[in-house]
């Protein structure tokens, strides 16, 4: 299951020096204690495993990733800071996390190879965490790196032996591509992170902004938060790559929650991203967005619930972007194409038309912004030390390629800089910035006309405009679960064929299967929407973006959302104690039925 | 600015708070009182109404500084808060509690709320949270009492004591306690002490300082109005190493108290770190106890205290069995019976803040239900006289004795006393003589248990995930410091010893206790407890063989690092 949510981190790069690749082992940066300590342990590993004679399975490659991050969320609800309040930031929020990749075997077959039909709890045996000292003390750093490396080695050796047995026991794999690709080594030592946010100022802003929710009695939970992640990422391996890059990402998030009289929870979410401290919004902007969200929440709460529907709909830009991320993006992640349990929706469709020919798709982590909006999925090097690249995936409707990390697949022996992971996980191919473009863009009014024309053609009383979305998820695995996707809209409008006024509705989820949904795209709008969020899959949560134009889809299916059953609070809100608060009183219990209708 | 808003809010809600004799001086208490008062009016048609409503707010502020091998790993000064509410519907004779519902959705909602508590206890934001949580608690309570009645209508139930007892509650708003902390001193000390391990056998070594103040507010509809602070400081040294055969060994030291003054001077900490370093070296070189052992064991120091906590303190907790829960037979069923050897007496007194100058962190001024704790005589000359009571009655005991912690009766400061305690030398002598009687070549002396995480294969360390008291018996943590004591009194450090579960009868197998008690601060089921207990000689304890599989030693040479 892959999931996408907007309510967390995004990552963008700040002032990383231009990547330069070089041949030959690189000298460690003697001014950087952490890089030097990593290099010393890599040299020890090389001498023990790679340079010395020996028999039996042994590591042929070791890589270190360190996330030296200062990360925090300051969150205020109804005017007061909540959750955890750290008094001594930034040191209090700083962590250095080491991930060690030890590959045992050979590039053709190594310890990372997928184990088929396996459900292994081997990780329970590992007691090592990757926490490193935050101080640049060479001795303390080396001791910690040494200990984590040793644990990673034992795990990798055990796994390699399992991989070999598994390969013998099972039928031959369809795709016998190697396990590790050879890439140019990269040396890029950029300046360490320096950016910081005025935290005290922002805390006061969050208090004031979230206090605005107090004026709206129907809002049960009203929160405004600032999430900041900044720091320096390090990569070093036994091939000689040495990378240091600074990063900064921040997000102001606004969320509100209410409960409709029928028990349905109604939640709305809004966010503003920044890729540098002075890119954060000013107080007036945040205030306006809080007020707008509160008003929209009141309107959605009062809107009628909608029933299941299938018919024409406009999926607005941001929602369309999420749909592409789920339907398409996850299915062209390279390693899935050789995962024998995967659905392989597109594996054999290379060179074939999979979407209408006016649509092209690329994934480009090197693009840092879309217009004024920073893109969360931007980075300069991936988590396997490979420079990010723009990858054309679909050109004029035809599938051209896959997203690749350093795990090759048939026909794609190299990485294209999409091996990604969160700290603590091993990288796999993931999306960065998925960009959907169209050669036929209709102005919003024209797109709406096309929708009305479709309604008349299909004799449907109304269609839908799906506007805001909370996120989505998809299953790409073959098996008992359908390989379907779901996108969770928050604001849906009913558009009537007979010219009645548009009507806000609530409580629907958008569902479908990938290939049929693509076939139903009839037209696209000129207004692109940007989705910035974090995406969760087997290598953990990574920041991503998706950009897409509005889509007119001929046949879309929405299903009724699972519903809450609790009554709204029984007493009026504490700030409005004497307000007329109208949860319907429970009806008197009905008299026991004397007869049912079915009885003769 | 903040203060002004709090004061304004205070005035705004003074109408609701007017029921109190006089408005409390604390705006948090005022906000809690206002919502507790409103919640008493909750109703849903003909369904049961609340007869008791309470709200608790806990806010912790913690400074934690940790260093490993001479460098800081983290230094964090943070605050967080939690709220807990209780709405009882029905009547004290029969309410929605003391019932294990088969409906997990309701059980879950009872313990986990989606509504977050403000850390800055702004009265308006706090009231919003309390309003939502009390509303939720009421809805859960009316459903639970219906489920409980359905259970009672379809099951034959032997005895049904009342669900809630009356208590005399008096407001206790105590002055704040904010002990000063010299952050720079501790930062440099944890660095210095952990640096001693740089050229040792240890592959992990950390020194950690934690200073914390927990402030608790409690308001109930029957008169509780409390606010008090629980300050604490802790300093711990922990090191582990891998012996040449792969076995992991651990050693450590710890100090705790209410303020900096309770911790040792820097030189003493460094000296102790040096001893832990030496101990690690000795453990790595120590022989493995490969054979199973069944015979006398002498628990001393911290190990003796944990022995009494696990065999007595915890089994005398939570005496009321909820309806629908399994009846396993418990120590608490044996009131006025002999449960232990006649040679010792056990008391619990949460009002005692120190023992021989050492801070007892299990002390508290009022319990989680606002009841002032009563000193207890638990076991007198081996006979069980009472156990830990909250306001939940049992068939035998009607009233609370002020020991409600984490929702159930539980220990505070446990004191084990013996009229005729004997010296360590004589205890050792008795140990080897008992061993000789059983034709054993040695007796075992356990000085300490592992704390913190242990390997999951060994069931985790003390308080670890797998460390739970099994039914009908008691499981002790994995020992970390064990000696074989041979007939000539020689003590030989061994490693790899694990204890089998002890039967409840183990307390009757106590043949001798020491004269000089150790003072140990620990945690039991999430709550702080203190144990003051002498060494204890137990007639028959069994050990397991060490885990026969061990990690191979490190393949890369340990980095050579100067101290």
Weakly predicted, low-confidence segments of chain A: 6-28, 592-600
Backbone structural class of chain A: alpha+beta
Query: How many H/I helical runs of chain A?
Result: 7
Mean pLDDT of chain B: 90
Number of helices of chain B: 9
Strand content of chain B: 25-35%
Classify the secondary structure makeup of chain B into a structural class.
Answer: alpha+beta
CA distance, first residue to last residue of chain B: 51 Å
Distance between the termini of chain A: 51 Å
Main beta sheet of chain A: strand number and arrangement?
A: 9 strands, mixed
Report strand % of chain A: 25-35%
Estimate percent helicity of chain A.
Answer: 10-25%
Anisotropy-based shape of chain B: globular
How would you characterize the largest beta sheet of chain B?
Answer: 7 strands, mixed
* Proportion of helical residues of chain B: 10-25%
Radius of gyration of chain B: 26 Å
Low-confidence stretches of chain B: 1-20, 453-471
Largest interface: A-B, 62 and 66 residues
Give an account of the 3D structure.
The complex is a heterodimer of chains A (600) and B (563). Chain A has 600 residues and is an alpha+beta fold. Chain A is 19% helix and 32% strand. Chain A has seven helices and 29 strands. Chain A has helices at 33-51, 138-169, 199-211, 283-302, 317-327, 444-458, 514-519, and strands spanning 2-5, 20-21, 59-77, 80-82, 84-86, 94-104, 131-132, 186-189, 221-237, 242-259, 265-274, 309-315, 359-363, 369-370, 373-374, 391-395, 398-399, 419-420, 428-429, 433-438, 441-442, 462-466, 469-474, 485-489, 492-496, 503-505, 508-512, 521-537, 540-560. In chain A, the strands form four sheets. In chain A, strands 2, 3, 4, 6, 7, 8, 9, 10 and 11 form a nine-stranded mixed β-sheet that branches. Chain A has a six-stranded antiparallel beta barrel with strand order 1-23-24-27-29-28. A two-stranded antiparallel sheet of chain A has the order 14-15. In chain A, strand 3 (59-77) and strand 4 form a beta hairpin. Chain A is globular. With 563 residues, chain B is of the alpha+beta class. Chain B has nine helices and 26 strands. Chain B has helices at residues 2-12, 14-17, 27-39, 104-111, 123-154, 183-195, 266-285, 301-313, 424-437, and strands spanning 50-68, 71-91, 94-95, 172-173, 204-220, 225-242, 248-257, 294-299, 344-348, 354-355, 358-359, 376-380, 383-384, 404-405, 408-409, 413-418, 443-449, 473-474, 479-485, 491-494, 498-499, 502-503, 510-513, 518-524, 527-533, 536-544. In chain B, the strands form six sheets. In chain B, strands 1, 2, 3, 4, 5, 6 and 7 form a seven-stranded mixed β-sheet that branches. In chain B, strands 8, 17, 19, 20, 21, 23 and 26 form a seven-stranded mixed β-sheet that branches. A six-stranded mixed β-sheet of chain B has the order 13-12-9-16-25-24, with helices on one face. Chain B is globular. Residues 1-20 and 453-471 of chain B have low confidence and may be disordered. The chains are: A alpha+beta (600), B alpha+beta (563). Chains A and B meet through helix 1, strand 4, strand 5, strand 7 and helix 2 of A and helix 3, strand 1, strand 2 and helix 5 of B. Strand 5 (84-86) of chain A pairs antiparallel with strand 2 (71-91) of chain B, so a sheet runs across the interface.
């Amino acid at each position: 299951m892959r999931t996408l949510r907007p309510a967390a981190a995004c990552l963008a790069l700040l002032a990383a020096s231009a990547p330069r690749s070089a041949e030959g082992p690189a000298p460690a940066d003697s001014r950087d204690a952490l890089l030097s300590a990593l290099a010393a342990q890599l040299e020890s590993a090389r001498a023990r495993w790679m340079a010395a004679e020996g028999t039996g399975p042994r590591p042929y490659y070791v890589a270190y990733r360190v996330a030296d991050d200062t990360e925090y969320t300051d969150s205020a609800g109804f005017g007061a800071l909540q959750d955890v309040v750290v008094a001594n930031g930034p040191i209090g929020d700083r962590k250095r996390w080491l991930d060690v990749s030890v590959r045992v075997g050979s590039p053709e077959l190594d310890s990372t190879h997928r184990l088929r039909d396996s459900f292994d709890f081997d990780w329970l045996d590992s007691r090592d965490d990757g926490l490193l000292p935050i101080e640049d003390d060479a001795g303390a750093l080396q001791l910690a790196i040494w200990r984590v490396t040793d644990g990673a080695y034992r795990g990798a050796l055990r796994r390699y032996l399992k991989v070999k047995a598994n390969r013998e026991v099972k039928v031959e794999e369809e795709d016998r591509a190697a396990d590790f690709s050879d890439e140019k080594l990269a040396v890029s030592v950029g300046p360490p992170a320096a950016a910081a946010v005025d935290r005290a100022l922002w805390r006061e802003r969050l208090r004031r902004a979230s206090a605005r929710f107090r004026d709206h009695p129907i809002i049960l939970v009203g929160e405004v938060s600032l999430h900041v992640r900044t720091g320096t990422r390090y990569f070093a391996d036994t091939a000689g790559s040495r990378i240091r890059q600074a990063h900064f990402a921040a997000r102001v998030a606004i969320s509100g929650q209410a409960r409709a009289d029928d028990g349905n929870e109604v939640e709305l979410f809004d966010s503003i991203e920044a890729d540098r401290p002075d890119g954060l919004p000013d107080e007036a902007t945040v205030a306006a967005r809080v007020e707008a969200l509160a008003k929209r929440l009141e309107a959605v709460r009062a809107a009628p619930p909608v029933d299941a529907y299938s018919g024409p709909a406009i999926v607005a830009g941001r929602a369309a972007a999420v749909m592409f991320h789920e339907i398409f993006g996850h299915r062209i992640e390279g390693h899935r194409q050789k995962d024998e349990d995967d659905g392989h929706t597109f594996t054999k469709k290379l060179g074939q038309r999979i979407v209408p020919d006016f649509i092209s798709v690329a994934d480009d982590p090197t693009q840092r912004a879309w217009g004024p909006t920073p893109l969360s999925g931007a980075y300069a090097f991936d988590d396997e030390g490979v420079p990010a690249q723009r990858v054309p995936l679909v050109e004029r409707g035809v599938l051209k390629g896959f997203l690749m990390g350093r795990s090759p697949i048939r026909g794609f022996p190299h990485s294209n800089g999409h091996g990604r992971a969160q700290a603590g996980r091993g990288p796999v191919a993931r999306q960065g910035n998925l960009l959907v473009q169209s050669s036929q863009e209709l102005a919003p009014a024209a797109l709406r006309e096309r929708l009305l024309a479709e309604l008349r053609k299909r004799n449907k009383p109304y269609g839908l405009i799906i506007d805001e979305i909370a996120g989505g998820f998809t299953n790409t695995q073959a098996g008992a679960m359908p390989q379907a996707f779901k996108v969770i809209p928050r604001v849906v409008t009913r558009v009537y064929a007979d010219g009645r006024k548009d009507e806000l509705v609530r409580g629907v989820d958008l569902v479908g299967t990938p290939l049929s949904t693509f076939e139903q795209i009839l037209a696209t709008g000129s207004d692109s929407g940007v989705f910035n969020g974090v995406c969760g899959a087997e290598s953990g949560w990574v920041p991503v973006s998706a950009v897409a134009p509005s889509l007119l889809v001929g046949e879309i299916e929405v299903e009724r959302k699972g519903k809450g059953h609790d009554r709204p609070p029984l007493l009026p809100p504490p700030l409005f104690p004497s307000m007329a608060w109208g949860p319907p009183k429970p009806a008197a219990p009905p008299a026991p039925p004397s007869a049912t209708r079915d009885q003769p | 600015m903040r203060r002004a808003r709090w004061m304004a809010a205070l005035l705004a809600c003074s109408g609701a708070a007017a029921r109190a004799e006089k408005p409390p001086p604390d705006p948090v208490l005022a906000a809690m009182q206002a919502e507790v008062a409103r919640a008493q009016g909750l109703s849903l048609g003909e369904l049961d109404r609340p007869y008791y409503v309470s709200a608790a707010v806990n806010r912790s502020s913690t400074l934690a500084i940790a260093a490993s091998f001479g460098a800081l790993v983290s230094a964090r000064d943070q605050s967080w808060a939690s709220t807990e509410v209780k709405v009882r519907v029905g009547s004290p004779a029969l309410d929605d509690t003391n019932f294990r519902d088969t409906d997990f959705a309701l059980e879950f909602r009872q313990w986990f709320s989606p509504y977050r508590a403000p850390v800055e206890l702004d009265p308006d934001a706090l009231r919003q949270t309390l309003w939502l949580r009390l509303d939720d608690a009421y809805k859960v309570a009316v459903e639970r009492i219906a489920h409980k009645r359905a259970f009672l209508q379809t099951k034959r139930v032997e005895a049904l004591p009342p669900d809630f007892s009356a208590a005399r509650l008096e407001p206790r708003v105590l002055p704040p306690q904010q002990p000063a902390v010299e952050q720079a001193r501790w930062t440099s000390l944890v660095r210095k002490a952990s640096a001693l391990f740089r050229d040792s056998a240890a592959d992990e070594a950390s020194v950690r300082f934690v200073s914390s103040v927990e402030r608790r507010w409690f308001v109930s509809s029957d008169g509780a109005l409390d606010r008090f602070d629980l300050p604490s400081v802790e300093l711990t040294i922990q090191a582990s190493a891998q012996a040449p055969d792969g076995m992991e060994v651990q050693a450590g030291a710890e100090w705790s108290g209410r303020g900096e003054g309770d911790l040792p001077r820097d030189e003493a900490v460094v000296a102790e770190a040096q001893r832990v370093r030496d101990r690690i070296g000795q453990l790595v070189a120590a022989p493995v106890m490969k054979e199973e052992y069944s015979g006398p064991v002498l628990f001393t120091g911290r190990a003796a205290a944990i022995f009494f906590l696990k065999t007595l303190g915890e089994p005398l907790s939570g005496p009321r069995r909820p309806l629908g829960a399994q009846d396993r037979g418990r120590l608490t069923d044996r009131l006025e019976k002999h449960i232990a050897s006649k040679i010792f007496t056990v008391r619990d007194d949460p009002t005692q803040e120190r023992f021989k100058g050492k801070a007892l962190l299990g002390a508290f001024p009022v319990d989680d239900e606002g009841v002032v704790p009563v000193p207890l005589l638990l076991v007198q000359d081996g006979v069980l006289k009472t156990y830990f009571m909250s306001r939940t009655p049992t068939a035998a005991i009607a009233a609370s004795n002020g020991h409600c912690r984490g929702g159930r009766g539980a220990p505070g400061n446990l004191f084990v006393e013996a009229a005729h305690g004997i010296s360590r030398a004589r205890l050792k002598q008795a140990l080897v003589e008992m061993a000789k009687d059983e034709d054993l070549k040695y007796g075992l002396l356990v000085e300490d248990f592992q704390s913190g995480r242990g390997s999951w294969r060994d069931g985790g360390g003390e308080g670890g995930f797998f460390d739970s008291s099994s039914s009908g018996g008691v499981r002790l943590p994995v020992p970390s410091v064990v000696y074989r004591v041979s007939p000539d009194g020689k003590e030989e450090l061994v490693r790899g010893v694990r204890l089998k579960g002890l039967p409840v009868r183990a307390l009757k197998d106590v043949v001798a206790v020491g004269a000089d008690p150790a003072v140990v601060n620990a945690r039991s089921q999430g709550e702080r407890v203190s144990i003051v207990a002498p060494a204890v000689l137990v007639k028959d304890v069994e050990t397991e063989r060490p885990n026969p599989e061990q990690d191979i030693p490190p393949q890369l040479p340990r980095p050579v690092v100067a101290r």
